[in-house]
From TrEMBL:
Record InterPro entries: CheY-like_superfamily, Homeodomain-like_sf, HptR, HTH_AraC, HTH_AraC-typ_CS, Sig_transdc_resp-reg_receiver, Tscrpt_reg_AraC-type_HTH
A Gene Ontology term for the protein's cellular component: cytoplasm
Organism (species): Paenibacillus mellifer
Annotated HTH araC/xylS-type domain residues: 444-542
Gene Ontology MF terms in the entry: DNA-binding transcription factor activity; sequence-specific DNA binding
UniProt lineage: Bacteria, Bacillati, Bacillota, Bacilli, Bacillales
Gene Ontology BP, a term: phosphorelay signal transduction system
Protein keywords: Cytoplasm, DNA-binding, Phosphoprotein, Transcription, Transcription regulation, Two-component regulatory system
Residues where 4-aspartylphosphate is found: 55
Protein name as catalogued: Response regulator
Amino acid sequence: MYKVLIIDDEEPLREAIRILGNWQDLEVDEIWEATDGKAGLAMLEQHKPDIVMVDMKMPELNGVEFLQIVEQKYPELLTIVISGYNDFEFTRQAIHARVVDYLLKPVNRKDLNQALRKAIDVLQAKRQIQSESITRNIAFNMSLPKLKEKIYLSIIERSFKKQSNQAFLPLIGADQQDHRFGVLVLRIMNMEAVKDSRFNRDKELLYFAVANVINDVAVDSLQCFSFANPKQEREMIAVYTAWGGYPQEIAFRAGELMRRVVSTLSDLFGVLVAGGIGRYCEDVLDLSVSYEEAVSGIQGIDLLKLKGHAVIGEADKPAMKETFSFSSRMPILRGALEAGNLNHAKSVMAEFAKSIKVSGSFSIGAADRLLREIVVLMNDTASELGVPADKLPSSGGDRSLQVLGLRTDVATFDQFEALLLELAEYYHEQVRRSMAVGRPFSVEDIKEYIDNHYFEDIKISMFTEKYFLSREYLMKLFKQQYGCGIHEYVQKIRMDKAKELLDDSMLKIQEISEMLGYKDKNYFSKAFRNYYDLSPSEYRQQQEERVKK
């Protein structure tokens, strides 16, 4: 078990840390509080905690002074700094003091518990490793990469202010005039499959392995710092740093690095990557542009041409002219969902996928946009049909769909089509459950459906799934009400309709066959003869003779 000391002059923040911490999971059984650095030193001496969380701005003795004393008197103590992001002087001092992590105000649950988990991991490592130098390096090496990741992300997201964060630049080598920077972006196309088969379903372990490969294959003249994008599932960002060389030479080396990374990931783990390369920039703040170019390269890759192999996109390739939209098909799909007809719903999706194939080109970016559009449209329809919000995905992104149990790997167009069919199945199930709960069952509903859809392929399983009733019970209810079975009633409606259509001499028998749902004219003729003891042609001739008389 472990002990934690919280030092902060703001009581609400101390209380928030107590509430948000997963103390039991972290094996923390004792927590103390101090209102300033001076009181914190006294409690440190008295209780000897394993981890200290310290605010940088406090009365009496502030965080900087506290860390200076701790570094001298308690060099093995693990500390977590809490402060504002722009306090670069405090951050520099925190790094000097070898803190485990740096938390930004206001503290949130995820960042807090991640920082605490790092500290606990270091403590556990210390119990296994006796060398003091190794244990100190563990703490330092775990804090510095995380800070570098935050710096790069803020630059890519255009929230980094160079003037107020000048002290951060040496950490990423941006203070060197001959350094050039660029971004490689890797999208793991088969992440779910590889995670399950090679990494015991541990996504973070997969990300860690990919980052190690990227960093290891880099050459001396082109080094990488890579990390998973926390805001984009299955995306790895690799910031490359080059020094010296002409623009064409740097671009060549970046391309060569990407090819080595893609090949190594495939050979070692079977990871399939769609990669994008951003051009280098002399100002580190232009990394945002390089990142966007790399992403654009990935989004421009033609999904129809992918056959389960890694591929590197071209950022300067002209964008494909694509106008795919599902909105015109939504009324048809809604009708299928409302009727509980899964086969019809899936056929709508399959036909749409077929139209995309016929177009000849379909980029990864278009697939992403189309998936988001379909989820929005289907969410709206499902909500109108009574499906509760907690049963609907929040977006068309990977994380949202994975929560529903859907497989989101799209390394080929066939996998994209399979995902569309899975979506149809999922929404069909949710609408079916909602409608079954929302209204009482009546056997008249089945009759009404048959009367209006006699030309479709009607199966009893459609009704058993829709109303949560057994096949035997449904058939018994229907026969009691209408004197015949469901299949017999479908046949009766079709044959009655066949007579009406045959009375119209302008209609060909082949056309009538198709209008009744028979794909084969001969099959229709056989069914008609079995029902009326004469063929459709004989019936029509008989009717014509009656008219003449």
